[in-house]
Design goal:
PyrdxlP_synth_PdxJ; binds 1-deoxy-D-xylulose-5-phosphate; Aldolase_TIM; TIM Barrel; Pyridoxine-5'_phos_synth; binds ligand LD2JLWAY; alpha/beta; EC 2.6.99.2; pyridoxine biosynthesis
């Protein structure tokens, strides 16, 4: 089965937050994404709310429940008490736990499954006890032992961190090495009974080779590259609309 696409709204939220105005409106763009066939919406609220605001969560939950009941809500983040309470209130179908520090610009590594084993076991059990699927952000470095430890936490899935692969956009040789490592990590995860998601810096160009190497890929969550493409493919029509608003003949 092809991988499902969950559209990450963080980049659109960051654009919105440049002004004290309600656009671009997250629910509006979430609706467009789901109406176009996306399987779900992903958000990664951070403690400073620099992109997703906590108040966005009930709005997006209601959008899915009221208009797209087949779709999934995926909330990503570091499991502080505040984050866990947000998840318990929004009841996403999936929570992706990410070991990011509030000072990080973006997520840039997976969990230390040995060092954080007890902590993860507790958090995974709490979320699963409330009916949420749990995925753990993981380095795609080919470490089979790490996948064994990830499975021992009780999680349902891992999300392979594809940032290093995404960074190889101009270096096909390095990209091939990264795909090999990601593929071996996925093989080890699947052998331990974990399903495999992937995300970070995925694009229309780099996704097909990854999906060929990992045919069991359950879901990809994509925000930055997808938002960049949305701007590109919508720019010409938008300029025409603004020229018309200027009074020009279009
Ligand atoms: C978990 C992860 O990989 C991230 O890609 C993240 O959710 C993206 O969010 P930002 O774009 O806000 O960094
Ligand atoms: N989990 C990864 C994600 O949601 C999106 O990451 P990116 O495409 O914005 O890099």
């Amino acid at each position: 089965m092809p991988a499902k696409l969950s559209v990450n709204l963080n980049a659109i939220a960051m654009l919105r937050n440049r002004r004290d105005l309600p656009w671009p409106d997250l629910a509006h763009f979430g609706r467009i994404a789901l109406a176009a066939g996306a399987s779900g919406l992903t958000v990664h609220p951070r403690p400073d709310q620099r992109h997703i605001r906590f108040s966005d969560l009930p709005v997006l939950r209601a959008l899915i429940d009221d208009e797209f009941p087949e779709a999934e809500f995926n909330i990503e983040g570091y499991p502080t008490e505040e984050f866990l309470a947000l998840c318990e209130a929004a009841e996403p179908e999936q929570v992706t736990l990410v070991p990011d520090d509030p000072s990080q610009a973006t997520s840039d590594h997976g969990w230390d499954f040995a060092g954080q084993q007890d902590f993860l076991k507790t958090v995974v059990a709490r979320l699963k006890g409330k009916g949420m699927r749990v995925s753990l952000f993981a380095d795609g470095d080919g470490d089979a032992q790490a996948m064994a430890l990830a499975a021992q936490t009780g999680a349902d899935r891992v999300e392979l961190y594809t940032g290093p692969y995404g960074g190889c956009y101009d270096d096909p040789e390095r990209a091939a090495k990264e795909i090999d490592l990601l593929g071996r990590t996925a093989d080890a995860a699947i052998a331990r009974g974990l399903a495999v998601n992937a995300g970070h810096d995925l694009t229309v160009a780099n996704l097909p080779p990854l999906a060929r190497r990992i045919p069991q890929l359950a879901e990809v969550s994509i925000g930055h590259g997808l938002t960049a493409d949305a701007l590109e493919y919508g720019m010409a029509e938008t300029v025409r609309r603004f020229r018309h608003a200027c009074g020009q003949k279009v």
